[in-house]
Write a structure and sequence with these properties.
Elements: E1 15-24, E2 31-41, E3 46-50, H1 57-64, E4 72-77, E5 80-81, H2 87-97, E6 98-102, H3 113-124, H4 129-138, H5 154-166, E7 172-176, H6 184-199, E8 203-207, H7 211-214, E9 219-224, E10 227-233
Parallel strand pairs: 3-8, 3-9, 6-7, 7-8
Antiparallel strand pairs: 1-2, 1-4, 4-5, 9-10
Bound molecules: adenosine-5'-diphosphate and magnesium ion (MG).
Adenosine-5'-diphosphate binds near residues 24, 53, 55, 57 and 58.
Length: about 240
């Protein structure tokens, strides 16, 4: 029997994780990065994932982003059981459904800011230079289009990543410590973008150490040793 959790409106939740376990083989034996995690995230929700270093936050986000697979358990996103998909279908599903913002940016170093965005468009469908330019302008980087990542500050690189993550308008945004490498001013800029995206209806799952960032979310999920140790609804008004 398949049990599907229902949201208040009666439709299935956008993200539905059940019994996720992820083990890594190591010389000292198996490392259990995630240990039987179940989590449901509604469409439009903003969830902050917290917890000490090594508690499994990145592993969770990577599985959610279909970049990694659990050793056991199931991942349903937008009604799709992602493990039923072929490699090709999974790549397509990821390109259409998920945008990524990482702490380490992961921009292609020998492509300009504009080209990094064009590449994301290319993986999704077709490149559209005007649209890519508008995306850069929307993060305040209209005049940095032809800069290489090495010619941009950390804050500017992260804004290119935001433009890249959003260019294909994915419903889900995954951010792994998006402000981890930024100064206070750029942290504020990234926070403003996330707020705007949340208001526009994007579903955001964000790993953060920063209680101020976490306070922007609707809910926090705290991991300890690969398990959910606490879940809290954030009551502070944005
Ligand atoms: P966090 O993001 O919370 O710091 P991670 O999800 O990166 O934690 O890691 C959780 C645990 O899994 C850690 O003990 C880490 O050492 C281990 N781990 C993560 N990735 C790998 C890997 N590729 N191979 C082996 N162990 C890993
Ligand atoms: Mg991590």
């Amino acid at each position: 029997m398949t049990v599907i959790s229902q949201s208040a409106s009666g439709s299935e939740a956008l993200i539905h994780l059940r019994g996720l376990t992820r083990e890594y083989a190591s010389r000292a034996g198996a490392v259990r990065a995630l240990d039987n995690i179940s989590l449901t995230i509604e469409r439009g929700e903003w969830v902050a994932v917290m917890g000490p270093s090594g508690s499994g936050k990145s592993t969770l986000v990577n599985i959610l982003g279909c970049l990694d697979q659990p050793t056991s358990g199931s991942v349903r996103i937008a009604g799709t059981d992602v493990h039923q998909l072929s490699r090709q279908e999974l790549d397509r599903f990821r390109a259409e459904t998920i945008g990524f913002i990482f702490q380490q940016f992961h921009l292609i170093p020998y492509l300009t800011a504009l080209e990094n965005i064009l590449l994301a468009q290319y993986f999704h469908s077709m490149t559209d230079e005007d649209e890519a330019q508008r995306a850069l302008a929307s993060v305040g980087l209209a005049d940095r289009a032809s800069h290489l990542p090495s010619q941009l500050s950390g804050g500017e690189q992260q804004r290119v990543c935001i433009a890249r993550a959003l260019i294909n308008q994915p419903p889900i945004l995954l951010a792994d410590e998006p402000t981890g490498n930024l100064d206070a001013a750029n942290q504020e800029i990234v926070q403003q973008h996330l707020r705007t995206l949340h208001r526009a209806g994007h579903t955001i799952v964000m790993v953060t150490h920063d209680p101020e960032m976490a306070a922007l979310a609707d809910r926090t999920v705290e991991l300890h040793h690969g398990r959910i140790a606490a879940e809290r609804r954030v009551l502070v008004q944005r």
